[in-house]
Amino acid sequence: MCQWPGAGHEVESWDKDPTRVGGSPVCAADIEVDGFLKQELGRLLPAAGWLSEETADDPSRLGKDLIWLVDPIDGTRDFLRGRTGWAISVALVSAGRPLIGLLVAPARGEVWTATAGTGARLNGVDLKASRCEKFVGARVPADSLMKEDQDLTMVEKPNSIALRIAMVADARADLVATLRWGYEWDIAAAGLIAREAGAAVTDAFGKPLAYNKRDPRAFGLLVTAPRIHAAAVERLADRAKKYSVQ
Predict the structure, then answer these.
(1) Residue 33 has pLDDT above 60, yes or no
(2) 8 Å CB contact between 199 and 223
(3) What is the average per-residue pLDDT within 94-110?
(4) SS3 137
(5) What is the pTM of this model?
(6) What are the tens digits of pLDDT across the range 208-222?
(7) Alpha helices by DSSP H, the chain
(8) H helix count then E strand count, the chain
(9) Within a 13 Å sphere around the CA of 52, how many CA atoms are in the beta-carbon half?
(10) Which domains does the chain have, with CATH numbers?
């Protein structure tokens, strides 16, 4: 059991993948939120498929044009520690592309929304992504930087990757990059929000992201101010090649 100060009560938690570096924590709230969203979203669009971090994958989703991509609590570590860096992530995907993205961060009082082709909003206010023009000095949510990246500037790093992506969408950060295999449910909603705000959103190699694949993973993520995207791809190129085959 783990005491969550933000809620004032204990939350049952466990590690669902002890073999993963750093573990992969999950708690009872993840499961409860997942069940609630599956029920309610299923009522909204009964024909849509479902892919969630906390639900066993059903291959029938591959034959669906519409599919919900859900991470019931992205940033479980911060949730369990009573910190604010977690969010609920929901995206509706059609033909491999996000149509609707919703990111709710209750502990921060933030609701992020986007609909393809109509822009992105935070608490109803239109968003404009970072307009950073120089890679050197770009702000990146990080706890530390590798030696070759010391020319970047660290800013707050919430545990939720979705919230870090959203930081580029409202210009609190200029660059978010990962060099690991990640899942579609982590990035679909926030990626649409960032793109609709004007950010560049690709995998670590600078290629477009696709969703509702048989293997719901992609290697790496790169979300940047548009003018520094090419420089970010170049900076990460050698590392991306190395880590993607491990």
Answers:
(1) yes
(2) yes
(3) 97
(4) coil
(5) 0.90
(6) 999 999 999 999 999
(7) 28-44, 76-80, 161-169, 184-197, 229-244
(8) 5, 16
(9) 26
(10) 2-244 (3.30.540.10)
